[in-house]
User: Which sequence fits this backbone?
């Protein structure tokens, strides 16, 4: 569990030592939507070893520049700005290069509504049009949707998860790319797909997401799930989640 207050303290301490730091991702999105926060992630130009000298930490994903900062009962994933290389496994970048440019870091992320930054004064920094898409209730990839889905095909399922959670529309170019690239989901481990599907089924707008899965044809590439998804899309409530 992590809170905005605790995260702002981490940002303040980073600034005191001369580093940049921002809250990033879902926490900023949910804060602007006045939804409850769970995990609060932080991005910084400080390297993991520098973060570890400032806070009590545990290694989480050092290969990707991430350490977990422990502050009382709260935890915060703190990740160094980075640029990702090719994704030949369709999940993780082959190479990660640290960066001093937060805009470069933001532009490697999945959707514009998850690409917003917030500083300790709760000022929003937006390099990708995320605020406009939040206001318009649109789920849109950052940059070319084909590039984002080639990097990690599971992002297609995450688009449906966010639709179920928020009730937003999926942008046409993003939706068209899902339709064209849905077969790439066959290469994703079923466990990863099921994790996203289960989260999606718990969303308040799940029928909307299920209907989009059907119109894009994604349900047809999920082994054994096609009929179940078609049936669930007709239900007022999903009783088994």
Assistant:
């Amino acid at each position: 569990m992590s809170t905005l207050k605790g995260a702002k303290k981490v940002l303040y301490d980073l600034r005191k030592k001369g580093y940049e730091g921002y809250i990033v991702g879902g926490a900023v999105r949910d804060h602007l939507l006045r939804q409850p926060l769970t995990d609060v992630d932080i991005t910084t130009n400080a390297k993991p070893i520098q973060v570890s000298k400032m806070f009590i930490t545990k290694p989480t994903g050092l290969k990707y520049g991430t350490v977990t900062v422990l502050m009382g009962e709260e935890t915060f994933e703190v990740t160094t700005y980075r640029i990702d290389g090719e994704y030949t496994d369709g999940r993780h970048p082959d190479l990660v290069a640290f960066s001093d440019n937060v805009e470069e870091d933001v532009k490697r992320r999945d959707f514009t509504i998850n690409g917003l930054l917030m500083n300790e004064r709760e000022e929003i920094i937006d390099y990708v049009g995320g605020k406009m898409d939040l206001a318009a209730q649109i789920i849109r990839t950052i940059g070319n949707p084909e590039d984002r889905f080639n990097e990690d095909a599971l992002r297609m399922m995450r688009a449906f998860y966010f639709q179920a959670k928020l009730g937003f529309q999926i942008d046409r170019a993003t939706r068209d790319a899902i339709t064209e690239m849905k077969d790439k989901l066959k290469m994703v481990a079923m466990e990863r797909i099921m994790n996203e599907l289960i989260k999606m089924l718990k969303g308040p707008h799940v029928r909307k997401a299920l209907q989009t899965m059907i119109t894009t044809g994604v349900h047809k590439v999920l082994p054994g799930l096609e009929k179940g998804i078609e049936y669930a899309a007709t239900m007022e409530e999903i009783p088994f989640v």
Q: What stands out?
A: The domain at 142-232 is CATH 1.10.110.30 (Hydrophobic Seed Protein). The mean pLDDT is 91. The CA atoms of residues 20 and 44 lie 5 Å apart. The longest helix spans residues 4-16.
